[in-house]
C-alpha cells in the first residue's frame, strides 16, 4: 500500500512511502483486538475499591433485643447488613485486575487494528517536524489543514518530543504517542492515525 507524504500544511511533498502489507493488510482478528484492549483497560484499573463488611464496622456487639417475644425477626448485632449503618454484603474488595496476553497475540491485535485503519483510508503520513516551543495554535492549524481537527486523532512520533506533546495536550481528541509505545486501544480509539515519515519504519521494525 502506497501513501503520499504530506507536510504540516496538508500539501503533497512529492514523496511516497510504502506500507508493509504484512502489517497494514493482514486478515484482521477481532478476538485478538478484544483481548489486547481488555488487557490494556484492565491493567490501568486502580483496584482500590473497598466497602466495609459486618466484621469491619465499628459498633457494639451487644444483642440489641431479646431473642423471642418481640414479634419480629431475631437480631443479634447492630452491625448486621439489614440495619442502616451495618456492613455491606458481598461488597467490593481491593484486587488486582492484571492479566497477561501473549506477545504474539498482541502483535496480531496491533496489525489487525492498523489494517482496519488502512482499509478505511484513515492513515496519513506526514514529514517529520518539530516545534522550538509548545505551540497549541500551530498544532491545531496543522490538524485543520489535514482536515482532521473535528476527529479524534493520534499522532505517532519516532521519538519523544516534549514540545509537540505539550502543544496537543489541551486539545480535545488529540493524542500524541511514540512508535514504541503504540498500542491497540489507542489505534482503535482514534478516528485518524497520523504517522510521521520516520515512524513508518520503526513500526515495521517493531511489528515485522
Short structural summary:
The protein has about 210 residues and is of the alpha/beta class.
Can you give keywords for this protein?
208 residues, alpha/beta, Ribosomal Protein L4, Chain: A, 7 helices
Descriptive report:
- This protein has seven helices and six strands; from the N terminus they run E-E-H-H-H-E-H-E-H-E-H-E-H.
- It is of the alpha/beta class.
- The chain has two domains: 2-45 and 102-207, Ribosomal protein L4/L1 (Ribosomal Protein L4, Chain: A, 3-Layer(aba) Sandwich); 49-96, no CATH class.
- It has a six-stranded mixed sheet.
- It is elongated and about 95 Å long.
- The protein starts with a strand and ends with a helix.
- The mean pLDDT is 93.
Category by helix and strand content: alpha/beta
Q: CATH homologous superfamily of the largest domain - what is it? A: Ribosomal protein L4/L1
Query: Unreliable stretches, pLDDT < 50, 5 or more residues?
Result: none
Helix-strand string = EEHHHEHEHEHEH
The percent of residues in helical segments reads 25-40%
The CATH architecture designation of the largest domain is 3-Layer(aba) Sandwich
Backbone CA Rg: 27 Å
The level 1 CATH classification of the largest domain is Alpha Beta
What would you call the shape?
elongated
Which strand order does the major sheet show?
2-1-3-6-4-5
Q: How is the biggest beta sheet arranged?
A: 6 strands, mixed
Amino acid at each position: 500500500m502506497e501513501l503520499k507524504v504530506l507536510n504540516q500544511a496538508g500539501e503533497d511533498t512529492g514523496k511516497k512511502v510504502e506500507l508493509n502489507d504484512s502489517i497494514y493488510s493482514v486478515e484482521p482478528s477481532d478476538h485478538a483486538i478484544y483481548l489486547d484492549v481488555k488487557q490494556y483497560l484492565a491493567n490501568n484499573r486502580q483496584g482500590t475499591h473497598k466497602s466495609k463488611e459486618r466484621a469491619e464496622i465499628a459498633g457494639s456487639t451487644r444483642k440489641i433485643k431479646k431473642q423471642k417475644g418481640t414479634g419480629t425477626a431475631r437480631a443479634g448485632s447492630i452491625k448486621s447488613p439489614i440495619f442502616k449503618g451495618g456492613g455491606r454484603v458481598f461488597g467490593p474488595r481491593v484486587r488486582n485486575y492484571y492479566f497477561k496476553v501473549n506477545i504474539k497475540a498482541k502483535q496480531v491485535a496491533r496489525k489487525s487494528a492498523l489494517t482496519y485503519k488502512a482499509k478505511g483510508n484513515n492513515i496519513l503520513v506526514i514529514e517529520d517536524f518539530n516545534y522550538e516551543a509548545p505551540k497549541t495554535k500551530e498544532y491545531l492549524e496543522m490538524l485543520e489543514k489535514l482536515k482532521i481537527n473535528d476527529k479524534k486523532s493520534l499522532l505517532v512520533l519516532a521519538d519523544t518530543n516534549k514540545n509537540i506533546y505539550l502543544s496537543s495536550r489541551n486539545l480535545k481528541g488529540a493524542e500524541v504517542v511514540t512508535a514504541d509505545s503504540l498500542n491497540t486501544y489507542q489505534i482503535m480509539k482514534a478516528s485518524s492515525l497520523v504517522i510521521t515519515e520516520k515512524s513508518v519504519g520503526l513500526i515495521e521494525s517493531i511489528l515485522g
